[in-house]
């Protein structure tokens, strides 16, 4: 691949897209950032911005025809994937490809691929398209169960259900949190796991598939709250996770970084989910690795070499959440948060907030994992997201 600067179009301009843009700009690329609202984080560092409904196939095609980017990089799941498939047939390059983007945005498609076609070990699961089906498939999985929409993000629409009397409520929650018009949901057994990890997996154009050291993470309501690197896995568990990640990413193909999630249950490694792009838990790599996940993604996309990935320090991340709905935002406590050594604060630049929205992240390193996690938590708790005070001229 000719490595002269490229024109890249980001479909989705949140905090992960912002870091992808920064990595691309450092290599001289021209970046067009697209999202559904103005002043999204990546738009603040990109060369050009476009505001559109990316679930509208015609709108998506029009903006791509307008700019004719060398590479199209989906950074969110709420996309008109059929339009991406059409564009790929017309000669546009989708990262990693249109098929991978479509499969991974639908929980049923990625689960069917992993569990049925590729025979990877997953939690037991079933599908339901109406309340009657939900009641029929839930009981055999045992209680509690997890109910999720087929299409959603950041834990929206997810419920942990302990008894059948709560199924109707969980069904309504799933429909309210779903993206798109589908009423299909996935019902999963609840796994008692020791650890949940993300294995960042990089497919290179002219090189072997490589992996970052595993990242441990915790979630609340399906959304990441903190992560750390390295996660403590036995050698056999890491080898198994790498083998499984390679099987599924080889099937999906393309180039770039995949975030592959697993549950560690005793000696077992169980496939959970997958994203064909940098992962939110991988924000920790900004402080933990010599080459962060966003730089790895861009290097792989551009066909650039990736030397050895080093992550020799104990590192952690902790999200900074809004505690109220805010029409504009300001931050207090940054000075306090940065008083500790080896601490970084990333504020994403989101123009407004909803209660529980992720507004930034604290990143730290320390001599041991417990200290890194404690430092990250302390730094994140030091920062308060407040309403920006308007001043008169």
Outline of this structure?
Helices cover 31% and strands 27% of the residues. It is α+β, with helices and mostly antiparallel strands and 393 residues long. The strands form 4 sheets. Strands 9, 10, 11, 12, 13, 14, 15, 17 and 18 form a 9-stranded antiparallel β-sheet that branches. Strands 3-2-1-4 form a 4-stranded parallel β-sheet, sandwiched between helices.
Unreliable residue runs: none
Structural class: alpha+beta
**Can you identify the CATH superfamily of the largest domain?**
ATP-grasp fold, B domain
First-last Cα distance? 53 Å
Radius of gyration: 21 Å
**Beta strand %:** 25-35%
Task: Characterize the largest beta sheet: strand count, sense, and whether it forms a barrel.
Answer: 9 strands, antiparallel
The helix content is 25-40%
- Architecture of the largest domain in CATH? 2-Layer Sandwich
Shape: globular
Classify the fold: give the CATH topology of the largest domain: D-amino Acid Aminotransferase, Chain A, domain 1
Give the total of domains: 3
* Individual helix count: 12
**Quantity of strands, as a count:** 19
Assigned CATH class of the largest domain: Alpha Beta
Mean residue pLDDT: 94
